[in-house]
Amino acid sequence: MIIFVAITFYHPNMDKDIIRIKVVLAEKERTNKWLAEQLGCAPTTVSKWCTNVCQPPMETYLRIAKLQEIEIDELLNKKYVTSI
Q1: Which end of the chain is less packed: N or C, by CB atoms within 10 Å?
Q2: pLDDT tens per residue, the chain (84 residues)?
Q3: Cα dist. 59→14, 15, 16, 20, 27 in Å?
């Protein structure tokens, strides 16, 4: 059974790493282009996620976690995330 938890993002400064997609890609030695190809989206979309300009839908987080072979919570910087 999968339970979805609603989360809100608190980011007083956009330069903080809220979403760790870029960090995880670097740790796995993969590129934005690789992730875009795997997800079937534009590289510019992945770039926006990596720079925290916008965030992907929750379903995409799940796909990214599966592709990277990690738990979904590794994609989120818990310091800036609060559960509802």
Answers
A1: N
A2: 544 444 444 444 444 556 789 999 999 999 999 999 999 999 999 999 998 888 899 899 999 999 999 988 888 776 655 555
A3: 23, 25, 23, 16, 22
